[in-house]
């Protein structure tokens, strides 16, 4: 603390400035003395500031590492065959390849296909015999679309097997008003109305069903409005059917299928067919055959492996930076986390996972290899061949795998541990068909029961595991699990990088809390140093005042002495 002026008073009210040695009776620079004393007291706070700065650099590095690990976890999880259906699973993605069609119309112009994840792969043949159409009805022509029709009454309309609505017509209503009244009820009837201008003085009302394959139906037209408009004949039949309502018809693997729509999703499980066009000749019974091959989405898997490699290499480069040394053999200036145990542990776990092999397949089977800096490289030719020829084996190498001896038992969530499990699950049922207990080796304390779910308890080897049993009888089911290399990398990355409970987050939180304490300690030290400086300045001011009083007294005594000597002489 700098002190520019210090003054004090004594009983004789003498004062003295201590701003410099020139104005001080003693010749001492009190300000410099105070400043030096305060600086000595604050030295510990400066050391703390340096420690806080180092911690902030570590926190920033941990956060960077955390982000890289989260990216890697996401990429690895997509290849890990996750049990959780909410997670992306590239191995369950499906795509459809179409071939066939005609010489003039390609298969993709005749048929569109979307496939749900997990759909059974295979090949199917499809012939589109007939497209579904929506019914259209026309009226007789009217000379004016805005003039009064002089018709009044009500009629009811709707599609077959659908809801209906009553349309009211007043004598002053025009053709345009009737169309508007019909459209006002289109959400209920699924029928829309439009007006076609045939010529300068000829307008026609057109009714269109918004659903294919369903006929437009009328009733309660006691005033004959529809007949007067020329929509129906006197016997109630259509007067002018522009397009007949018909359903679609296809042949799938030799089986005839009829539906009311051109969008068919209930023939092959997980497959939606969109019918676009048909070249089928009903007179000859011939039409183009489309071959549809449902396969795993290999391009998505390949892209996923590339994303994984990029994410892994980013993590590896970060770790290498933290392990770098300078020219003096010590940590490089960029190695903020040099010799950090957590970084070292994560690095080892990732490396061990990538070295996983099942005795036949390893990362080299995927066309992956290590560069000299331990980053990964991809051989696309080898990867393409592996995906085409050994997809199931590669899925086993990469992902989480489980099997049960009962079709009634399935896994809803995988265990937290990546250790392989092989056990016999004894399931006991109550008389009402509910699950009474589940255990291994007679120990039923390992699981809790919630409806049809069997949940592994925390603290056991089965923690995190959720099984679903839909059987009605007591039985013993063999269960086995194992983790592939992508699953291992996901667990390592997620355990460390999770921003809520991950190990890096714990380090970040601890350092943040510690910095808060250090900041408070530094503030206390500086506050105490400032108070000490104020106290010391007051003390020096009092010393100076006393020195000034003594100097004044000495000067007075000297004057008396000089006067006395002068008078005696």
UniProtKB/TrEMBL annotation:
GO cellular component: bacterial-type flagellum filament cap; bacterial-type flagellum hook; extracellular region
Record keywords, A-Z: Bacterial flagellum, Cell projection, Cilium, Coiled coil, Flagellum, Secreted
Database matches in InterPro entries: Flagellin_hook_IN_motif, FliD, FliD_C, FliD_N
Region feature (Disordered): 1-23
UniProt entry tagged with the keyword Secreted: yes
GO BP term (any one): cell adhesion
Keyword S-adenosyl-L-methionine found: no
Domain Flagellar hook-associated protein 2 C-terminal, residue spans: 245-546
Subcellular locations according to the entry: Secreted; Bacterial flagellum
Flagellar hook-associated protein 2 N-terminal domain sequence ranges: 26-134
Subunit (UniProt): Homopentamer.
Family listed: Belongs to the FliD family.
Biological function: Required for morphogenesis and for the elongation of the flagellar filament by facilitating polymerization of the flagellin monomers at the tip of growing filament. Forms a capping structure, which prevents flagellin subunits (transported through the central channel of the flagellum) from leaking out without polymerization at the distal end.
Name by which UniProt lists this protein: Flagellar hook-associated protein 2
